[in-house]
Amino acid sequence: MPRIDFMISSSSSLVKRGEERIDPRNKALHISRIALEKKGENVIVMDMRGLAVFCDFFVIVSAESTRRVKAIASAIVEGLQELGLRNHHIEGEKDALWVLLDYSDVVVHVFYKTIRDFYDIERLWQDVPKELISSICQNNQLKQEYPT
Asked: Does residue 69 contact residue 96 with C-beta atoms inside 8 Å?
């Protein structure tokens, strides 16, 4: 399985406040970083371009508890607000079994682990290119793998 490292640092163009548009892939990777920092598990970025009209990328994250689901979702909202980015819609915050964060070009799904296993979104969109974001490496790099 090939691996690549992708740099997103606080000095990159991704995080400049006031820009009209942030590249959707970089936004998805930044969200992945936030999720990993909050102990999100099995973080996957799915490239929906050309297959879905409602977004460019999905970010899918699992957590072992509803408390952690809430913490991950809150951290993503706060982290993107720091960049001047607001979500268009949030669903599922109260129960925290499946929290959906809609950032227009990136839709984030934060799942309680058993709920993710039940709905199996990755299988539903099995033909979509996927990247498993496995960890944050030294120098603020994300380790990515492309599942087969």
From this structure: yes
CB under 8 Å to 96, separation ≥6 — which residues? 66, 67, 69, 70, 73, 112
pTM, two decimals, is 0.80
Q: Which domain holds residue 104?
A: 3-11+23-145
Any idea what DSSP says for residue 92?
-
Answer whether residue 16 is part of any domain.
no
The two structure tokens encoding residue 99: 């929290």
| Number of independent structural domains in the chain | 1
In angstroms, rounded to a whole number, what is the distance separating the alpha carbons of residues 20 and 40? Answer: 29
CATH of residue 65: 3.30.460.10
For residues 97 and 66, the answer to whether their CB atoms sit within 8 Å is yes
**127 within a domain of the structure (yes/no):** yes
Lookup: tokens for 135 = 């960890």
In a domain, 31, yes or no: yes
Is residue 17 in a domain?
Answer: no
| Beta bridge pairs of residue 112 | 63
Cα–Cα distance, 114 to 74 (Å, whole number): 20
pLDDT tens figures, 117-138: 999 999 999 999 999 887 654 4
| The token pair that represents 26 in the structure block | 């970089």
